Amino acid sequence: MTALLELRSVQAGYGAVRALQGVSLEVGRGAMVALLGSNGAGKSTTLKVISGMVKPTAGEVLFDGRSLVGMTPNQIVRLGLAHVPEGRKIFKDLMVAENLRMGAYTRSDSAGIKQDMEMVLQLFPRLAERSRQLGGSLSGGEQQMLAIGRGLMARPSLLMLDEPSLGIAPNLVIDIFAALRKINQERGMTMLIVEQNAQVVLKNTTSGYVMQVGRVAVQGASDELRRNKEVVESYLGG
Question: Whole-model pTM above 0.90?
Fold first, then answer.
């Protein structure tokens, strides 16, 4: 499997704080990859570096063989990379349908946008039922579905998700990951998923990386990580 995304010895931080201390990882084309770790391990910073929100101080970020270093978030989105941030960050004063259309702001193919809108509403029937409601009136799980749907509207090659299960009822978490698997399988969309619910994410991905204090500590196939004693004790309640 060829790498769609590759990080090589990436360092980054906030002022004097070094959040990433030489992170290297690969996300194969069409894969679903988990990024695990405790709070402060550097997971969210890794996604922010990839999407151009945080500038690396060293190392290389390659997307489809092209360096992203120095690009703006807007330029990176146009290359085919969408980032669904932690906390959802939906437009609470816009209706559901308007939120989704905002995700397609880089596109001009009206027919394709309409097709993708229908796809998202079929993928998340709750959003179809609430298409004319304000985003702020939705439940936490519905807002997460909306944030993911908005990311899909960009029609990305790589979708990055930061804590998609955070603060969401278990039954909705199952629905969300089922939808992600469906998109991956039917559209071949590559995904990099930051998640603290290790049990759920490792059941739904092909491989994963475990970060500790700004570095990748463990990596491997998801099934192997679920059997790894260190991962089990630290993240799976074993």
Answer: yes
